[in-house]
Specification:
- By secondary structure, the chain is an alpha+beta fold.
- It has a single domain (5-87), classed as Roll (Ubiquitin-like (UB roll)).
- It has 3 helices and 7 strands.
- The chain has helices spanning 13-18, 32-42, 47-51, and strands spanning 5-10, 22-26, 52-53, 56-57, 61-65, 68-70, 82-87.
- It has a 5-stranded mixed β-sheet. A two-stranded antiparallel sheet has the order 3-4.
- Strand 3 and strand 4 (56-57) form a beta hairpin.
- The longest helix has 11 residues, at 32-42.
- It is globular and about 35 Å long.
- The termini are far apart.
Amino acid sequence: MRSVLVTVVAFGLWQMILGSKTRQVKTNGSTIRDLIDTLDDLSMGKLANEVLADEALDPKFKIFVNGHVSDSLSTKLTDGDEVLLFSVIDGG
């Protein structure tokens, strides 16, 4: 399994769980799912339960890779990618 080094910029709940807005992360693989697993390890198991639903990204959250929305946890990452993690704001 190949790891990659990406820049993660977290907003909302992502930032609260991870404890910082921006960080360099070396993943334990090369997909968005691998990144979530790595971030889950860094957050001591708090992240995955919040952002995943039935092995997919919960619709309350959005992930962008290099400015493009990623709809799949199998999206491949490469060294130097910028990954933005957003919580969707809803309500009225």
